[in-house]
Design brief:
mainly beta; 21-stranded parallel sheet
Length: about 210
């Protein structure tokens, strides 16, 4: 099925099921999506500004050009989905899960905060993270390739079975970081030896 592209503000979408749907160019301001499920949906162009995504699920869906600005994501799940050109600016993301998903061109910027987030079994490529805080975030079974992280604060995070390839990291802050089964390849650190030394100095679990 196809859905017309609403553009406006103060919308509330609640308890909707979008199954095998084509959704294109939706722009919402000061709006809320709550208890919505996207099953095998094809989403091309979703922009939410000053809004709230609550208890939403994306299963087996394809998402391209997904932008959130000054928006809250709470209890959102991405399972077996593909997403590209995700742009997260000045937003708070909490209690959100990414499982078995492929994320490409994921940009997180401008004082965005991630809290109680889990990335599990995902592939993440071409990412740009700047001036963000990750609190109680789990990165498990990930391959992260060709990323640029600057001014990123990791606090109470778990990095397990993590593979970083050709990544550039600068001004990284670590606090109460748990590491296990890390794999570093390529030109990992560009101008930030402190981050690499911190990884090397952190004992693996069981050591």
């Amino acid at each position: 099925s196809k859905y017309a592209a609403p553009k406006g503000e103060d919308f509330r979408f609640e308890d909707n099921n979008f199954q095998i749907s084509n959704i294109k160019d939706i722009e919402l301001n000061s709006s809320e999506l709550a208890d919505c499920s996207f099953q095998a949906a094809n989403i091309n162009g979703l922009k939410v500004t000053g809004g709230h995504l609550l208890n939403c699920e994306f299963h087996g869906s394809s998402i391209e050009r997904f932008a959130v600005n000054n928006t809250e994501l709470d209890d959102v799940e991405f399972h077996g989905s593909k997403a590209s050109k995700l742009n997260i600016i000045d937003s708070n993301i909490c209690d959100t899960e990414f499982h078995g998903s492929s994320l490409k061109e994921l940009a997180i910027k401008k004082n965005s905060q991630f809290r109680d987030i889990e990335f599990h079994g995902c592939s993440i490529t071409h990412t740009n993270w700047g001036n963000i805080k990750l609190d109680d975030v789990k990165l498990q079974g990930l391959t992260i390739k060709d990323c640029n992280w600057e001014n990123v604060d990791f606090s109470d995070c778990q990095l397990n079975n993590l593979k970083l390839v050709d990544c550039h990291l600068k001004n990284i802050s670590l606090s109460n970081l748990s590491l296990q089964d890390r794999n570093l390849e390529g030109q990992l650190i560009d101008g930030n030896e402190a981050f690499l030394k911190a990884l090397e100095a952190s004992p693996l679990e069981g050591e």
